[in-house]
Write a structure and sequence with these properties.
The structure is a homodimer.
Chain A: H1 6-11, E1 20-26, E2 31-37, H2 39-48, E3 52-55, E4 60-63, E5 72-79, E6 86-92, E7 108-112
Chain lengths: ~120, ~120
């Protein structure tokens, strides 16, 4: 892993609650989940090379896969043009979703275009 | 387009501000942007078959590409397992980002794993 550059944390525009949305994408291209990070969770993510999020409901850090074993190894973190969203490319050890699906977005389709 | 099913709107858990984050992904697999929708913008998106977001800074609906011409035709909308994030597959008419890049995440890379 590359050593943490502290400036990375200062580049992110965290919201009023100190959070930034993080989109997690598999090497397959599938978007796996959207979760939230605070500065601590982003720093830990950079430190251990696996995703660590902030759980808004439990109000605590959450090392993805610590219980399930389905960790996500971080390959790349990109910041968007207004610095308030992250895109994290990962290699998965197992399904991202607690339902057992690969992606949290595999659960419900709201709309499919009729003219695809 | 499929006619709007009003139930779609009631399936989404909008946050305390009436918003839901929407991840926009190209047919190429590239994640283009993260934007926000309220119920009105989601309804308009379903009505016109192109992305319509809610601008938090301008506090108004924003039909993506109305000015630039770079509209996004909606192919599919998926809801995540806790119903508080959308993944929208689109066909792009042009770059998603106001910088001219295809993706808003093309602007800044925070981290690349050294052992990819």
């Amino acid at each position: 892993m590359t050593p943490i550059d502290k400036d990375v944390l200062s580049m992110v525009n965290f919201d009023a609650n100190g959070l930034v949305p993080a989109i997690v994408q598999s090497t397959s291209g599938r978007v796996l989940m959207l979760a939230w990070m605070n500065a601590d969770s982003l720093e830990q993510t950079l430190n251990i090379g696996e995703t660590v999020f902030y759980s808004r409901s439990r109000r605590e850090l959450w090392h993805k896969g610590a219980t399930s074993g389905n960790t996500q190894r971080v390959l790349k973190i990109e910041l968007d043009c207004d610095s308030d969203a992250l895109l994290i490319q990962v290699e998965e050890a197992g399904p991202a979703c607690h339902t057992g699906e690969e992606s949290c977005f595999d659960v419900e389709t709201l709309f499919i275009s009729g003219d695809q």
